[in-house]
Amino acid sequence: MIDVEKIRKDFPMYNEHQGLFQGKKLIYLDNSATTFKPYQVIDAINHYYKDITSNVRRGDYSLAHEADVAYENARKKVAKFINADESECIFTSGDTMGLNMISYFALSFLNDGDEIVLSYEEHASNVLPWFKIAKITNAKIKYIPLDEHGKITVENFKSVLSSKTKIVSLATVSNILAHPVPTKELVKLTHSVNAIYIDDGAQAVPHMKYDVKDLDLDFLVFSGHKMLGPTGIGVLYGKRELLEKMDPLFFGGEMNTRFKKDGSFSLEELPWRLEAGTQNIAGALGLAASIDYLENIGFDNIERHEKELKKRAVELLKENKNIIIYNPEDDSPILSFNVKDVFSQDVATYLSSKGIFVRSGNHCSKLINNVLSDEMSVRASFYIYNSLDDVDELSKHLEHAEDFLDAFFL
User: Fold this and answer.
1) Which residues does 385 contact at the CB level (< 8 Å), separation at least 6?
2) Catalytic residue (choose from 364, 376, 401, 405)
3) What percentage of the chain exceeds 90 in pLDDT?
4) How many domains does the chain have?
5) In-domain check, residue 377
6) Which of 361, 348, 376, 225 is nearest to 290 (CA)?
7) Are strands 115-118 and 89-92 parallel, antiparallel or unpaired?
8) 94 and 150 share a domain?
9) CATH number for the domain including 383?
């Protein structure tokens, strides 16, 4: 497994906040919401603000050139990371912005009766934009039925695919049940009916190696803050022929070449035509640094480490008859569970008093009640700086359900 103690030396959250948690050891298990940032990422952000502060693609002086080079080098890093061309990688504010940009593009070709395929596992960011677009275009949303384990299978996917399908938008790994979908097979089937496949990679890109060309993805979106990078930065990848057809969602700044008083204007080439206004330059540099950090560890090592954490968590929590586990079969770094007869937020609050930080609620996936009997759940999500000891501590404090009641009513 990864040398966790060595890794933690790179993270100020483990080194500079000893007194912040009431003397408790910090056990952070909410990595699906956001991740800690290593010094290397913070240094990259600070480098922009301390050494090369200038806007990009605007200045004709040496300092602006330094910022230009750093910003475009970050794009090169992203492109290599997912095996894309630089012109196909658009910087966004995050996963949500990317999905909204794509849904806006869908207005140009969706018609009455066309179908958009989603699942009940999708995050709000991959549901609400499509609700809006379906309402405007009178398109129909269809949901993929899940098998008895809550998985999307090829056969179930085929059952909703039709000649009317124009959009398929799915998370490779959802943020609750977290069963990885067979993306490559689903993309091939999607293309067989001439539809577009969108991969919401928010929970997948930080944990596994991606190759957009091998997968033949039409679009991919992901956020930096879930992969050790800063908040407010993300990536929209799209095949060039699709990006060329996209109208910008935002206008202004340096995404245009000229405009005239008669209302005519012309746009820059890709990728800049889709990046209106001043971008999160420091965020792009921080994202590039996070990619360096993860690649230095190696995604094979990351996946092995996370699988061991998940395996230990499932084994220990299965011994507790008061625990309901919703996704014990997969080896993703996400564990969703409940304590019988205890409200999920009470569980999270109790664990917080022990220095263990987990997520509770519906996790922005408000359609999950169509799949699970319990709409709310507790979610523990693991990453590279989590240890087997973290898992053991979680299990230890979940051993007696009555502890929760005692904590709140005594």
Assistant:
1) 4, 7, 8, 11, 14, 28, 36
2) 364
3) 85
4) 2
5) yes
6) 225
7) unpaired
8) yes
9) 3.90.1150.10
Q: What are phi and psi of 101, to 5 degrees?
A: -65, -40
Q: Give the pLDDT confidence of 55-79 residue by residue, as tens digits.
A: 999 999 999 999 999 999 999 999 9
In a domain, 35, yes or no: no
Write the single-letter amino acid at 242. Answer: L
| CATH number for the domain harbouring residue 221 | 3.40.640.10
Q: What is the pLDDT of residue 177?
A: 85
Helix axes 62-82, 281-297, angle to 10 degrees: 40
pLDDT for 19 equals 58
pLDDT tens, 137-163? Answer: 999 999 999 888 789 999 999 999 999
Co-location of 204 and 264 in the same domain: yes
Contacts (Cβ under 8 Å, ≥6 apart) of 260: none
User: How far apart (Å, rounded) are the C-alpha atoms in residues 406 and 403?
Assistant: 5
Amino acid letter for position 77? K
- Return the residue matching tokens 């230890």: 396
Reply yes or no: is the peptide bond before residue 271 cis, omega within 30 of 0: yes
Catalytic (active site) residue 89? no
* Burial class for 111, CB neighbours closer than 10 Å (0-12, 13-18, 19+): exposed
State which residues form the domain around 193.
42-295
Residue 324 shares a structural domain with residue 371:
yes
Is there a single domain that holds both residue 289 and residue 323?
no
Domain termination residue (choose one: 295, 315, 334): 295
- Residue 1 to residue 124: CA distance in whole angstroms: 34
Burial class (CB in 10 A: 0-12, 13-18, 19+), 394: buried
Is residue 343 within 8 A of residue 40, CB to CB? The reply is no
- In the predicted model, what is the mean pLDDT of residues 304-316? 97
Listed residues 239, 266, 295: the one ending a domain: 295
